[in-house]
Design brief:
single chain, about 70 residues, alpha+beta, four-stranded antiparallel β-sheet, two-stranded antiparallel sheet, 6 strands, about 40% strand, flat
């Protein structure tokens, strides 16, 4: 299923972000919310300027970024 979805996203020109199984991401306006639903720390890539939290997200934690501006 992953391969099919990755190919479909590539074909449509949609950006992809690799996340751990326990991590979920939501974009709302200029903000990117990343949640760790797992029982262990999860490391995520820097996705813009950090508003709150850090890229090493503790269990049941979150980090919020502002979207990176296009150069």
């Amino acid at each position: 299923l992953y391969e099919i979805m990755a190919r479909a996203c590539n074909d449509a020109g949609l950006p992809q972000t690799a996340l751990a199984d326990s991590v979920r991401m939501r974009r709302n306006g200029d903000l990117v919310f990343v949640f760790n639903y797992g029982t262990e720390d999860a490391e995520v890539a820097q996705m813009g300027k950090t508003v709150i939290g850090q890229t090493l997200i503790p269990p049941a934690g979150a980090v919020i970024f502002t979207k990176r501006l296009a150069k």
